[in-house]
Structures are given as structure tokens and as C-alpha cells.
Design a protein that fits this description.
The protein is built from 15 helices and 9 strands. It is an alpha/beta fold and 373 residues long. The chain has a domain at 6-56 and 114-305: P-loop containing nucleotide triphosphate hydrolases (Rossmann fold, 3-Layer(aba) Sandwich). The strands form 2 sheets. It has a 6-stranded parallel sheet, with helices on both faces. A 3-stranded antiparallel sheet has the order 3-5-4. The protein is globular and about 135 Å long. It starts with 5 loop residues before the first strand and ends in an 8-residue tail after the last helix. This is CobQ/CobB/MinD/ParA nucleotide binding domain-containing protein.
């Protein structure tokens, strides 16, 4: 791309059980559908539900080691690569007490630990490098997040780069507690961080109405904050429970061409259709916000440039081919006519055939009178 567009997205809600993980799944599915590259972090240390679905190999190891990271075989060359992990690198640090193996981090989360705050800097760095970074936050981290923003000058860094934006996708179930937390988030952060309110209709069908009748609605209208719906995923309790346990992506569940014999309850056509309907509604809602419109426009421009370059390349190749063909054809014609293209023969001039003479002419040349015969 001519100019990299960076975005740092936090899926938040502060209150537990409001549907942050479900919305995060829908957002990742949207990005995949639109072929938008992203870097994902599930910042829930003990229960990274979304990470276990979309990056299972990484988060299975994190869970196995108490949410801290993964172990690797000891090495004499084990050194600290960076102060915090990148998307593709793992930081090797000293082994835990009593352990003989070297310990590696591959997880970013927010806690009171000072070192964890520094590791979280990588989220900002990757966004400033022109990446789309998605972070699924656990509940009750606003205080730590605010401390990170202030201590590490995160907001100033984002604001200083015109091509980088930060977003809060605030998921609410419409309950009074959730709406108070939303109101507080808008009051504290909305001047510097773009907010999008996500009303979870699956938990409360009148969640949007609850937002509209709450005092926060005035601030939402004044600041033109988008409000979208997270539709209800119409599953029975057994279906929903099995879906969560299956670790299937929503797109895999909605795909009728894919079968999952180990989960026959989820292989039914009605279940797949409901999953597809849910995703379609989520995609429409996300598109309406326009958050990813600049990225999609840039991608489309790059496609047009690539198509134009390909078209020019083909035209140039065809023109070159036509020139060669024309030259070859002209040469063949000249060879057939025995000329060199200038009307001149390339070979010695052929001798003209003698004219045929009549018998009378021959006799006259011999001075023989025809009448004598």
C-alpha cells in the first residue's frame, strides 16, 4: 500500500458476561471475509476463549502453563530477543523458580505487574507500524488500561500519527450496570479514543432501547458515536453449549459444505443456516460503522493498480508479439517473390526464355521462298 493504515481495536465492556467474546469472533470473521490482515491478542489470562478458537496451538500452551506463556527446551543461547513479544517472535527469559527449562512468553495481558505493562507496548507499536491489531479484553481492566495509557504515553503516540487510529468496541447487554460503565468509558476516553457501542440483543432484546433511554444517549448523540446491534444467535442451550465446547469458528459452523461428525447436533441444516444469518447481520452492522472503509478503499486501489499494470503488461507483450509476427510475414513474402523488400531480387536475374518463332519466320531468315514448295 502507498500509505499503511494502522488500527488498534479493543473489544471491551468492563462487565463480565456481556458478550465480548462472541462479538470478537464476529469481528475476526468479518476481517477474514474481507481479506484484511490482522494481528490478534486474547488478553484474558485465564480464559482466552477466542484465542483457543482462532489460534489454538498458541493458547493451548498458554493455558497449560497457567496463562503465562510456553516452555521451550533449555538452550545455551537463550537470550532476551526483545523487551516484549512481536507477532512472530517469542521472548526467552529466565526459567521460573525450581525449573530447569527456559521460559518463553507469547502472551500479552494487563495486570498490576510492571513488566506486563511494558509487554503491552507491543500492541501500540504494531498498530503504528501499519497493522490492524485486535485485542479481546477481559472484564474489569479499565483502571490498568488507563494506567498503561498514561504511564506509557500511548494516546499521545497514537494521536501523533495521522494514519493510526484507536477504537473501543464497547459491548453492552443494556443492564443498568453495563450502561453506567459505558457512560464512564465515554466520559474518560471518548475524546481520544473512537467508541462504537455494540448492543447485545442475544442477551437483552431491548438492549438498544435501554441505551436510548439512558442518560448516556445524550453523549452518544453529541459525539456521533455509532451504535450497532450484535444479533441473537438462535441456538438452544444444548446447541450453544456444544458450540462453545467444539471450538468451531462461526464460519466453519455456517458452511454447509463442511461436516463435523463429532458434533452431529451442530451439523443440522437449521443450525448452519442460523449461524449464517447471524454472521450476515454482524457483517452488515460492522460495515455500517465505516471503521474499515479506508482500509478496504486502499485495498481496492491496490487491486486496480495491479490490474492496470497487468493490462499494460499484456498489451505491451501483444504489441511486441504482433511486431515480430508482422516482420516474419513480410520476410516470408519477400522470399517467395525473390526480392529483398526494396523490389530488388536477392538472387541473380534469371535469363529470359527464347521467343517461339513460326515456321515462316524461320524460312525467311534462311532466305528460302515459301512458294518453291
Amino acid at each position: 500500500m502507498s500509505q499503511l493504515i494502522g488500527q488498534l481495536h479493543f473489544i471491551t465492556g468492563e462487565k463480565g458476561g456481556v458478550g465480548k467474546s462472541m462479538y470478537c469472533r464476529a469481528l475476526l470473521e468479518y476481517l477474514s471475509k474481507e481479506a484484511i490482515d490482522y494481528i490478534f491478542y486474547d488478553a484474558d489470562r485465564t480464559s482466552p476463549d477466542v484465542g483457543l478458537v482462532y489460534e489454538p496451538s498458541k493458547y493451548d500452551k498458554i493455558i497449560a502453563n497457567g496463562g503465562r506463556g510456553t516452555y521451550s527446551a533449555p538452550s545455551d543461547e537463550a537470550t532476551v530477543k526483545e523487551d516484549y513479544p512481536t507477532a512472530s517472535q517469542i521472548v526467552t527469559v529466565a526459567p521460573p523458580p525450581g525449573g530447569e527449562e527456559s521460559f518463553t512468553y507469547s502472551h500479552i495481558y494487563f495486570s498490576e505487574d510492571e513488566e506486563d505493562i511494558f509487554k503491552a507496548d507491543r500492541l501500540c507499536d504494531q498498530a503504528l507500524e501499519g497493522n490492524i491489531v485486535i485485542v479481546n479484553l477481559p472484564a474489569q481492566v479499565e483502571v490498568i488500561l488507563d494506567r498503561w495509557f498514561d504511564q506509557q504515553r500511548i494516546l499521545e503516540s497514537i494521536e501523533s500519527d495521522e494514519s493510526t487510529k484507536m477504537y473501543f468496541w464497547f459491548v453492552t447487554d443494556g443492564s443498568p450496570e453495563s450502561l453506567e460503565l459505558l457512560s464512564h468509558s465515554i466520559k474518560i476516553f471518548a475524546q481520544q479514543i473512537n467508541h462504537i457501542v455494540v448492543c447485545n440483543l442475544g442477551l437483552h432484546r431491548r438492549a438498544r432501547e435501554s441505551v436510548a433511554h439512558h442518560g448516556v444517549a445524550k453523549r452518544i448523540n453529541e459525539m456521533n458515536i455509532p451504535v450497532i446491534d450484535l444479533p441473537e444467535l438462535i441456538f438452544s442451550k444444548p446447541e450453544m453449549q456444544l458450540f462453545k465446547e467444539s471450538r468451531l469458528k462461526l464460519s466453519e459452523l455456517a458452511d454447509r459444505t463442511k461436516r463435523h461428525p463429532q458434533f452431529p447436533l451442530l451439523d443440522r441444516v437449521l443450525v448452519k443456516q442460523r449461524a449464517k444469518t447471524f454472521l450476515d447481520k454482524c457483517f452488515d452492522a460492522i460495515s455500517i460503522t465505516g471503521v474499515f472503509a479506508p482500509i478496504l478503499a486502499e485495498m481496492e486501489l491496490e487491486k486496480e493498480k495491479a490490474a492496470s499494470a497487468l493490462k499494460k503488461g499484456r498489451a505491451k507483450k501483444k504489441a511486441s508479439s504482433d511486431t515480430v509476427t508482422q516482420s516474419t510475414t513480410t520476410s516470408d513474402v519477400h522470399s517467395a517473390n525473390g526480392t529483398n523488400g526494396n523490389g530488388n531480387s536477392d538472387s541473380p536475374r534469371a535469363t529470359a526464355e527464347p521467343l517461339k518463332k513460326s515456321a515462316e519466320q524461320l524460312l525467311n531468315e534462311m532466305n528460302i521462298n515459301v512458294s518453291e514448295f
